[in-house]
Amino acid sequence: MKENSIRIILAPLQGFTDITFRNVFDDHFSGVDEAVAPFIPTMGKKKLKSSRLKDVAPEKNKKIFTIPQILGNNADDFIFLADCPHTKVANKNRGSGLLMHPEKIDAFLDIVLSRIKNTLSVKIRLGRVSKDEIYNLLPVFDKYPLKEIILHPRTGIQMYEGTPDHDAFEEARLLSRHPFVYNGDIINLTSFHIFQKKIPALRNIMIGRGLLSNPFLAEEIKGFQLKDNKINRLKDFHDDLFSGYQKIYSGPGHLIGRMKGFWSYLGPSFIKKEKSLKHIMKSESVHRYEDAAADFFTPGSEFLC
Ligand SMILES: Cc1cc2nc3c(=O)[nH]c(=O)nc-3n(C[C@H](O)[C@H](O)[C@H](O)COP(=O)(O)O)c2cc1C
Prior knowledge:
Shape: globular
Number of strands: 10
Bound molecules: flavin mononucleotide
């Protein structure tokens, strides 16, 4: 299968992949076909923050096609949000706790899917405590017209420990009538190839942390010719992201905090820049931050191999 027939979805990463990040990312890198936005918690209509809705407003998300994600298990609040003007929504039930209660998921989907106009995808793990929980969930999902199931094949209590279980993913996929999206630990070309060899039929993957630590990853997976110098491209990306956040955050604390999060993934991908990364993490003024960030983009800097 040609690698550029792979569909790559940017994962929702709360505090990282907001609208500013997604739009700036799209200005500088290619290969990402769509994104799921970080979750919006369900709340009564009145309590909903407008900034949450702005993040997924279609008119502001014209670059990467973005699917809003709603987190919560109150069906009425969910329906209110899901009927906002989008064509698709993704659902993540509050925590992975609900995975142990297929009957609650059944009741929730029954109400929600009979009342919303949008298509719905679900993003899940194999279970909360045991990988076997998925076997009780798949027949429930089969009853409803879901767009797709995004599966991160770990359990909830596993957090990010161990490795994603590719066999369990494939077994679940074959047992379900729905299309599946794979998610979990695709961090470089090697991990992509290991996964692809195991499940060659799968064309849809979601990547989160791998794209934060290597923004070229989707281009690499799709075999695009990398244009220009990586360091220059990263610098331009960084500068645009920084000025994008400068427009949003009034105080330096929030601004620098946001950028520190960004560097916590990107920084370790530079060769021998541990000291510069420490300087970034210690910086408290914009001036100090800018000095430390400039250190990553000096002539001779190297990014990955
Ligand atoms: C900092 C952080 C924030 C996250 N926020 C969300 C979120 O808002 N919604 C969600 O469904 N998953 C969230 N996740 C999980 C990711 O979407 C993804 O499933 C997980 O990181 C595994 O994919 P990866 O190995 O490609 O990063 C988050 C993960 C991280 C590390």
